[in-house]
Design goal:
With 235 residues, the chain is an alpha/beta fold. The chain has a single domain (2-8, 19-224), classed as P-loop containing nucleotide triphosphate hydrolases (Rossmann fold). 43% of the residues lie in helices and 16% in strands. The protein is built from nine helices and eight strands. The protein has helices at 33-44, 52-64, 72-81, 109-118, 122-133, 146-150, 164-172, 179-193, 213-227; strands at 22-26, 47-50, 84-89, 92-97, 100-101, 139-143, 156-161, 204-207. A five-stranded parallel beta sheet has the order 2-6-1-7-8. Helix 1 packs across helix 9 (213-227), helix 2 crosses helix 4 (109-118) and helix 4 (109-118) runs parallel beside helix 8. It binds 2'-deoxycytidine-5'-monophosphate. 2'-deoxycytidine-5'-monophosphate binds at residues 29, 51-52, 55-56, 115-116, 119, 143-146, 189, 193, 196.
Length: 235
């Protein structure tokens, strides 16, 4: 068993010291991508990175300042003033704003309702993508456009989908809101996100609806092991 270091180290692949491995898992909200990405990262002994948390961090700072989330220039100005950082730690990703941990404030209904408006701004997307490309080491990263735009040269790419009703039910299990309100919110978000949320031409597309998390990760892992030059996997 090999345990990889945090992002910034060369990861858990002892047969190829220094080789960087990036695996992308994209898909719509509540498709199961973050749970799958976390478990896959653990099995491979490398870091897990959530790109959505940076969009959520940008949204939180805008909401806190009472800025109109449609105002791209004002959000960019705030991001230049405040230090919003993603920390891909072993126990889960954390976000700090000026070194204060705000992670617990990133999955509220208010952030859910505004984040896809913030994520539509091209310069906010460029800000997020710059932060992600600065990260060293090996990692599994989830998002919408990781395989298409941000890491087009990733070693392996996946796109997870699920029927909207299945996704709403899953999300309802994580929030206090009822399933119908969540379904409406998800379809609004799908509509706003759809331009940046398409599978890469070379992504493996998996419908997670009929699968358990472990089954999804087994499928992903099988595909990853086919393309990994050499590997040691945590069991
Ligand atoms: O994955 P998530 O639900 O935490 O993402 C939050 C929002 O950020 C979601 O509405 C889509 C957007 N997003 C994006 O546009 N591109 C990404 N790579 C990740 C998230």
């Amino acid at each position: 068993m090999t345990v990889g270091g945090p992002a910034g180290s060369s990861g858990g692949f002892d047969a190829q010291p220094g080789a960087r491995v990036v695996i992308t898992i994209d898909g719509p909200a509540a498709s199961g991508k973050s749970s799958a990405a976390k478990l896959l990262a653990q099995r491979l002994g490398i870091a897990y990175v959530s790109s959505g948390l940076l969009y959520r961090g940008a949204t939180l700072v805008a909401l806190r300042q009472g800025i109109d989330v449609a105002d791209e220039g004002a959000i960019l100005a705030l991001l230049a003033e405040q230090d919003v950082r993603l920390h891909p730690e072993a126990g889960g990703n954390r976000v700090t704003v000026d070194w204060r941990d705000v992670t617990d404030e990133l999955h509220t209904d208010a952030v859910d309702a505004s984040v896809s408006v913030v994520a539509k701004h091209p310069r906010v997307r460029a800000w997020v993508n710059d932060r992600l490309r600065e990260m060293g080491g090996s990692f599994v990263i989830d998002g919408r456009d990781m395989g298409t735009s941000v890491f087009p040269g990733a070693l392996a790419k996946f796109y997870l989908t699920a029927d909207p009703a299945v996704r709403a039910k899953r999300r309802a299990g994580e929030r206090s809101t009822g399933v119908e309100a969540i379904a409406t919110e998800l379809s609004r978000r799908d509509e706003r996100d759809k331009r940046q949320s398409v599978p890469a031409a070379d992504a493996v597309v998996i419908d997670t609806g009929p699968l358990t998390l472990v089954e999804v990760v087994e499928q992903v892992l099988t595909a990853v092991l086919r393309v990994l030059p050499a590997r040691t996997v945590n069991t």
